Automatic annotation (TrEMBL):
Taxonomic source organism: Marichromatium purpuratum 984
Catalytic function, reaction form: [protein]-peptidylproline (omega=180) = [protein]-peptidylproline (omega=0)
PPIase FKBP-type domain location: 21-78
SUPFAM superfamilies reported for this sequence: FKBP-like
UniProt xrefs under InterPro entries: PPIase_dom_sf, PPIase_FKBP_dom, SlpA/SlyD-like_ins_sf
Endpoints of the signal sequence: none
Name of the featured protein: peptidylprolyl isomerase
EC number per UniProt: 5.2.1.8
Transmembrane segments: none
Family label: Belongs to the FKBP-type PPIase family.
GO function terms (MF aspect): peptidyl-prolyl cis-trans isomerase activity
Group of enzyme by EC: isomerase
Keywords: Isomerase, Rotamase
Amino acid sequence: MVINDTLSTPAETVSEPPLAVAAGRRIAFHLQVRFPDGFVAFSTFKEEPISCTVGDGTLTPALETAIDGLLAGSEAEFAGDGSELFATYDENNVFWLERSEFPPELHPEPGKVIAFETPAGQETSGMVLETEGERVRVDFNHPFAGRALQLRIAILTVET
């Protein structure tokens, strides 16, 4: 993983210096994920920020390492592998499904992302890879797994 220099740092003030991201601290941040061609695949910059406690399992260890030490108010960009930063690609998460398992009004086409419900009642998504007769091959891996990514992160707050 390549981490670029911090793009901006908070201005110095007379008050206490900003806290740095570290294990056990509660953080709020914006995240943007881009593919190498510049396509923005995910962004919270115009939405609610992500909030979590570093080390609670919300973020992968690689993502926590990438943001460790960033100060509240700072912004950084870095490149990384989606399998490290989000989820490992697993060939066992690619399945052939029968066309009859899809609603009649749904036309699975390669590249289409479709919402599914697991037997346990949880919602998940899968990307259609190909169709072959009455079968549809669907990839249930995290959409960033196995892909080169560019991330932009703005640390909004860090609390003890």
